[in-house]
Amino acid sequence: MSKQPVALITGAGRRFGFELAKALLDEGYRVFAHYRSSEQGIRELESLGAEPVQADFAKLSEVEQLIQNIQAKTARLDLLVNNASSFFDNGTVDEELANLEAVFQVHAMAPYLLIKGLAPQLKAADNGLVVNITDIYVDSPTVNHIAYCAAKAGLANLTQAFAKHLAPDIRVNAIQPGPILFLPEHDSEHRRQVLEQTPLQVEGGLQPMIDTVRFLRDNPFLTGESIKVDGGRALNI
How remote is the C-alpha of 90 from its chain's centroid? Predict the structure, then answer.
């Protein structure tokens, strides 16, 4: 078996998933970069050596196909990062039932299937690690994103349950991001209000998230943990 470490990052086409994939490629990883539809970032990652894998996590049959694809391509998986997200507010969720289903399938059901289905590959890596990206709102949900917060809370619970179930062979941890990188639709007033609620009063950027993945990877005595990377904002929500 090759000694090259292998990672699967879901939602790798943009923002954190994209930057983490680039960082791991720089470290010599073989990276499977998952995406749903947006190919711009994925094509750049592919030019750097990543292997793109497409699946719509709102369709669980496609999650199963992705698992089979990874199983066929590698006997080991050192790192699985469940990062894919559907950040739907209440209005979007209430528009149609499919949107509600998508929120729970992307954030809870797909990670469940991925962890369970790829457990043999994670175990074969001899230090297999799962990192689930949850949210600071799993502890104090916002009323504007009720389904999203509930689904992320489910992922937080999956983190602890799988940490117990898969030990000692596989470690499972989570990261709870806060104001890491504002979205383009966030206006200056929204940004000001968020930063006023954040003790460190800065937009964190993506590097602290990448550093936290490395911390979880490099500390073999951590499992079942959830680390807030939020500038202290969870203290004030």
Answer: 22
Catalytic residue, chosen from 29, 35, 137, 148, is 148
Please say if the pLDDT value at position 186 is more than 80: no
Known catalytic residue at 29: no
CATH code of residue 171: 3.40.50.720
* Residue 80 domain flag: yes
User: Comparing C-alpha atoms, which of 214, 133, 121, 113 is closest to residue 169?
Assistant: 121
Domain that holds residue 178: 6-236
Looking at the domain assignment, is residue 21 inside a domain? yes
Residue 18 covered by a domain? yes
> Could you tell me if residue 1 is inside a domain?
no
Largest CA-CA distance found in the chain, in angstroms, rounded: 53
In this structure, the number of other CB atoms found within 10 A of the CB of residue 218 comes to 10
Q: What are the Cα distances from residue 185, in Å, to 90, 97, 172, 182?
A: 17, 25, 33, 8
Q: In this structure, are residues 147 and 88 in contact, taking their beta carbons and an 8 Å threshold?
A: yes
Sheet with 51-54, side-by-side order of all strands: 51-54, 30-35, 6-9, 79-82, 128-133, 170-177, 226-229
**Digit-coded pLDDT (tens) for 97-149:** 999 999 999 999 999 999 999 999 999 998 999 999 999 999 999 999 999 99
**pLDDT tens-digit map of 163-184:** 999 999 999 999 999 988 887 7
Count up the domains in the chain and report the number.
1
pLDDT at residue 201 is higher than 80: yes
Give the residue among 69, 68, 58 at the shortest CA–CA distance from 36: 58
Q: Which of 189, 178, 74 is nearest to 120 (CA)?
A: 74
